[in-house]
Amino acid sequence: MRRGLLKPVPQLLSILVLAGVSLATWAAWLGWDQHRDVQPDGTTTGPYEAWQVIGLVLTLLVPVCWAAAHRFAAGAVLGTTAGLTVAAYDDWSDDSSGLFVVGVGLVMMGSLAVTALVSSVIASVKREGGHSGHAVRRR
Questions:
Q1: Has residue 109 been placed in a domain?
Q2: pTM for the predicted model, two decimal places
Q3: Structurally, how many domains does the chain consist of?
Q4: Rounded distance, CA 87 to CA 18, Å?
Q5: For the chain, how many helices (H) and strands (E)?
Q6: Is 138 within a domain?
Q7: Tell me: the pLDDT tens digits for 29-47?
Q8: pLDDT at 79 over 50
Q9: Is residue 139 part of a domain?
């Protein structure tokens, strides 16, 4: 009976770990750049550059793929989505227009969709790869 109670613990831990990793990678890639760049024509861009967002995505691919390959797809999807959503909310909530909520919602939906897709592909490849390793060799 105790074994049945401990099954959800690794899944919950994977969610918490991936959420923490997502928060930390957001801080590392995007947290330090908080100013907008003013162009010569008066328009503003930023605060993030494309390379920062690409770095965040590529960095998060590693733990998401690892978790999905080790049967922690829920942690990969829910943890990463929760971590990025909380980080975006914390980073953007000082916007007085209130439009930050739209951005946070887009981060949440985008990260949920992408991590679910990546986790599904990795889990599927891992599952199919496991079957081919057990093939009986014929002589």
A1: yes
A2: 0.83
A3: 1
A4: 13
A5: 6, 2
A6: no
A7: 998 877 777 788 888 777 8
A8: yes
A9: no
As a 3-state breakdown, the chain gives helix, strand, coil percent values, each rounded to 5, of 70, 5, 25
- Rounded Cα gap, residues 18 and 75, in angstroms: 6
**What span, in angstroms and rounded, lies between the C-alpha atoms of 129 and 39?**
51
Show the domain range for 22.
2-132
User: Is residue 137 situated within a structural domain?
Assistant: no
- Which whole number is the average pLDDT over 95-121? 94
What is the distance between the alpha carbons of residues 38 and 45, in angstroms, rounded to a whole number?
7
Within 49-99, residue ranges assigned H as helices are 50-69, 73-74, 80-92
Copy the structure tokens of residue 124.
Answer: 């599927």
Measure the CA dihedral 13/108/45/28, to 10°: 0
Q: Is 67 within 8 Å of 76 (Cβ atoms)?
A: yes
